[in-house]
Fold this sequence. Notes:
Strand 6 and strand 7 (190-202) form a beta hairpin. By secondary structure, this protein is an alpha+beta fold. The strands form two sheets. A six-stranded mixed barrel has the order 2-3-8-5-7-6, surrounded by four helices. The protein has helices at 2-21, 23-63, 73-76, 90-97, 131-138, 165-171, 206-209, 217-224, 242-252, 268-306, 308-316, 321-357, 379-405, 409-414, and strands at residues 66-69, 102-117, 120-129, 146-150, 160-164, 178-184, 190-202, 212-216, 231-236, 259-262, 359-361, 371-373. Helix 2 packs antiparallel against helix 10 (268-306). It has two domains: 2-58 and 270-414, no CATH class; 71-257, no CATH class. The protein is built from 14 helices and twelve strands.
Amino acid sequence: MLGKYRSLWLDMQLALRSVLRQGRRTMIAIVGVSFGVMVLIEASGFIEYLMRGLRESTIRGQLGHVQVVKPGYIKKGSSDPFAFLISGKDDVLKQIEAMPGVEAVAPRLQFTGLVSKDDVTISFLGQGVSPAREDVISRSEYTTVNISQGKGLDESATNEVIIGRGLATNLGVKVGDSVVLLVNTPSGGINAVEVRVRGLFFSVAKAFDDSAIRVPLKLAHQLLKADGAHQWIVVLKDTGETDNFLARLNKTYAGQGLEFVPWYDLAEFYNKTRELFSSQVGVVKLIIAVIIVLSISNTLSMSVLERTSEIGTCMALGMQRYRILRLYIFEGLMLGLVGGAVGVIAGLLLAALLSYVGIPMPPPPGSDKGFSAEILITAPIVFGAFALAVVTTLMSSVLPALKASRLEIVEALRHNR
Length: 417
C-alpha cells in the first residue's frame, strides 16, 4: 500500500515537471482556462445581480414573501372578489406579524371603479393599504412604489390618496387637487367619495402607474362598505427563510380557513425570466467548456507528439502503461487546477472593480428610470466555474493520455530517428 502511494506521488511530481518544462505552451493553456473561468464568473454574477433585484422588487413591491388569502382566492378571486374577504381575524394578523423573521404584514384590499376630475372620467384599479405597514416595506432599496411628487399615504389622513403618475397625467391632476372616486359596493349599490391627491407615485410597471390609486384601508372600507382585506402580504427579513416560514404557518394555522401562498408560486414573470437567463448561462458554459477542451487537448497532444521517444524509453525501462496514462491525466488536472484558481482570483478582482465603478443600465421595460448594476458573486457561481475548469481539463486529457499509453515501444523509440 505504501509503495502504491509512493508511486502516485512520484507520478504527480513527474507530471508537474513536465508541465513546468513546457513553459510557453503551459502558459497559453492556463490563460485559456483562466479567461474562460473569469468570463463565466462575470456573466453569472451579472445575471445573478439582475435576478436578485427582480426577485426582491417583485416580492416587496407586489407579492410579498407569503400571501395569506382565503382558500381559492388565487384562482377564483377575480370573478367574485368580495366572496374572499378576510375579516374578523385581526388577532391572527398580529400573531403572524410577531413571528420571528417577519418584517411586516400588510393587508391589501383590491377594488375597481371610476375616478373623475372635472369633465374627465377614467377607470382605475384601487388598493386599500395600511400606510404604516407599507412604509416598513418601502424602506428597502428594492421597493417598486416610489413617490415622485408630494407625500406618501398617512394613517391619520384618511381622506387623501396617492395616484399613479400615468393616471394623474391622463386625468390632468396634480398634488393637492381633489378627485371623485366611484365604486360598486358588494351589495350591488354605488358609492362615491371626494378625496384629495396627496402624492404621485411610479413603479417598475408603467401599466400599473397608468391605472392605480392607493388609498388608506379605512377609506377603502368606508367607500366599499365592507371590512377586511383580500390579502395579507407577509414580508420577511430574509428571502431564504421563505420555505421554513411557510411550513411554520401551515403547521400553526391549519384549519383556520386560510391559505398560505409563497411568492414563487405567483411570480410567473420572474420564473420565466430566470429560466431564460439560466439557459443563456448554460450556453456560455458550453462555449467555455469547448474552448477549454480544445485548448488542453491540443496542448497535451503536442506534448505526446514531442515526447514519444521519452515515453518509449520509460516503457522500455519497465514503466507500466497505466502510469503513462496517469501522468497525462495528472498534467491535465494540474492545468485545470492552476487555470481555475487564476481565473477565480481574476474574476473576483474584476467583479469587485466593476461593482465599485458600477455598470450603467437602461430603464427596464415599462419604466423610465435607469439604474447601476453590479456583479453579484455567490459561492455556487465560484465553485461552479472552478469545477467546470477542472472537469473539462480532465475530460480533454483522457484522449491524449490514452494515445500515449497505447504507443508501441519499438515504434516510440524509433520516433524522430
